[in-house]
Amino acid sequence: MKTRTIAFGFSLLLLGTVVMAKATDSKNPVNIVSNQQGKVISIEGVGNTRTIEAKGGETIQIEGADNKVVIRGNVGKLIIEGKGNVVTGNDVSSVTIEGADNMVNIGSLESVQIEGVKNHVHYKSTKNKSGQAQVSTEGAENMVKKMK
Which domains does the chain have, with CATH numbers? Predict the structure, then answer.
């Protein structure tokens, strides 16, 4: 357990280094990439503020720190790698977070996977029969909460 904690801390340190390295090239931080599975919208860097108009089924990937992203429309996947990112939006099928101090506030959610520290996900509804999103967390002080 101690080795895993040390390895996780080292991973966060490396992530911070990568985030700072990418921050120097923030003139064009929004990339849209098409692949066989649909559209991937990628936001990289530090301190970006973006509104994304989703058509349905896209994957939104955020890499960096202190980015503020508003999602309008429905999204298949939301992937966050970094620290201090804030995302608000409508419906997201799945959320994956690796990092610390990230905040996600969305309408509908089916599953959440978190690895990190102090990440918070709030959602209003789910399509799951249980009435709750499927949750997997690893780390300290992470929270996934259904809001009324």
Answer: 2-146 (2.160.20.70)
* Stated pTM of the model: 0.77
Higher pLDDT, 18 or 80: 80
Distances (CA, A) of 136 to 15, 40, 46, 67, 71: 21, 23, 27, 24, 23
Q: Which residue has the tokens 């959610």?
A: 109
